[in-house]
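Usage

Read records sequentially. Each one opens with the input sequence:
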Amino acid sequence: MKPTTTLVLLADEEHARIYEKRGVNEPLVELQSFEKSSFKDSDKQYSDFPGRSAAARGTAVHAFDRTTSEREQEREAFAVHVLEAAEGHLKRGGFDRVAMAAPPKMLGTLRAGMKGKLAEIERFELDKNLIAEKPEGLVARFSEMIAF
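and closes with the structure output:
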């Protein structure tokens, strides 16, 4: 019987770590670790002021509503990088499922951005910031939900 392989994804708004677990008795192995500052778009300046628009001369001037804050825009941009990295590992590694842990807002952003195989395979999620957790602690955290 082929062991179930799990891709473990940890993220917060500044850091991400990706691990693999190749079976119940196998260790958790770190595949990748990176920070938001390692991407060129991390220092991008986002507008925090709404724009203005006038339909035609003599008509009313309207302010655009602010749809997302600068922090939300930065979170979404970093989540794109995190998900791209995870998808790359999925393509190379033949994983059966994904286990994720992130603070609630980041977890929601990651969940909303998932597509392709990453969105299709079985997922287990924890809404906690476990980015600083040691591998042994991660195994204990996830073992409450799955045979890990």
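Summary fields computed downstream for this record:
- Strands lie at 6-11, 15-21, 28-35, 52-54, 61-63, 97-101, 122-126.
- The mean pLDDT is 86.
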